[in-house]
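Lab notebook, bench 4. Still working through the backlog of constructs that have no structural model yet. Next entry is a single chain of 157 residues. Request: give me the structure tokens for it.
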Amino acid sequence: MAADLYAFFLDQISPVYQPIKEAEALEAQLSAAFGISVAIAAVLVTDLPELFNSMTDPGFATNNKPINPDPNQFPPALWYMKLARMAYVITQFNLGAADVDWLLQNAVLVNAIDLTAYPSAAAPIPFSDWEVLNNLCIFNRTYKPQTITDPANPGEQ
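Model written out:
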């Protein structure tokens, strides 16, 4: 009787619990494979649903056969290449999770480098996009965030 109740309970929570466990596992794998923090990996997994779907697709995740490494023909290979590039940019510019989150959402608006873009000879990333990112990082290092009190409530932040 207890085993049946336990099985019933697992069946009920599985649709909600399984994606959470997959996301946590993917975050840990990305952190270990690309040398980024788990917090940054969590931002990538959360903000890039295509990444999550591609990397957790059963056709890829449960496959033990050799895969096609061509990023133009195999979406997980393309994501691997994008992740390697993202990790390089994130670590070289010493970006935090909040920075990566902001950049993923606003890069196109401020003409900064789009972390999800995959450069090619036909679609290179302009140097000006790199300059914008560099200038944003310089600004962030020069002008640290300040907590400003609300004049209407001076005791609260």
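Notes after review: The chain has one domain: 2-142. The mean pLDDT is 85. Flag for follow-up if needed.
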